[in-house]
Specification:
Strand content: over 45%
Distance between the termini: 50 Å
Helix content: 10-25%
Shape: elongated
Largest sheet: 8 strands, antiparallel, barrel
Number of strands: 13
Number of domains: 1
């Protein structure tokens, strides 16, 4: 009888520990500040500047939906999910003539890796196009900040097209992006 009672106590204790373990991977300590990775969030970014005789302006509006399941690899928590949205790119010459494109993007497989105070959103599972624009959107590398936000830097590169009157081969702009949770 004492063995059964002891087993029940151990089982109850293990269940309590299991609940704590399920909560931990979604929470990260960043410089002693607790941080929760949102499972639904926007990545909003801007990049603009003069480059190679062009004025470049880009806006990023992506949405990610991350599964609450995760895996652990060494000191890295790995989440999987999907994402999509659009990134606009405008490239103008000194006469304010040029091209503006707004492609819709869909990422059927997203892997979000959180390690230390770093986060990498890997959407590289889509087919490569040979375009620097799309190459630059494969990995979104950022930092988890003390105030609980996530931000990073990105480069908006040309589409590398030159056909049918459409030309976008020059000019890059570097900017920042942030994560905004979706309630």
């Amino acid at each position: 009888m004492k063995k059964i009672g002891l087993l029940v106590i151990v089982f109850i204790w293990m269940m309590g520990c299991n609940e704590d373990l399920e909560k931990v991977p979604n929470s990260k300590k960043v410089n002693s500040t607790e941080f929760d990775l949102p499972l639904h969030f926007w990545v909003i970014g801007n990049a603009a500047g003069d480059s190679e005789g062009r004025y470049i302006e880009c806006v990023c509006e992506l949405i990610f939906e991350i599964d609450s399941n995760y895996s652990l690899r060494k000191d890295t928590v790995i989440y999987r999910g999907t994402g999509g949205g659009h990134i606009s790119r405008k490239s103008l010459d000194e006469n304010e003539e040029g091209i503006a494109l707004i492609p819709d993007l869909y990422f059927p497989y997203v892997e979000v890796k959180v390690f230390g105070d770093s986060i990498v959103m890997d959407v590289s599972n889509f087919p490569t196009t040979g375009s620097r624009f799309y190459d630059e959107t494969e990995f979104w590398k950022g930092k988890l900040l003390e105030n609980g936000t996530i931000e990073g830097r990105w480069t908006c590169a040309p589409f590398d097209i030159y056909e049918g009157g459409w030309v976008d081969t020059l000019g890059t702009a570097t900017g920042t992006w942030i994560v905004e949770p979706i309630e």
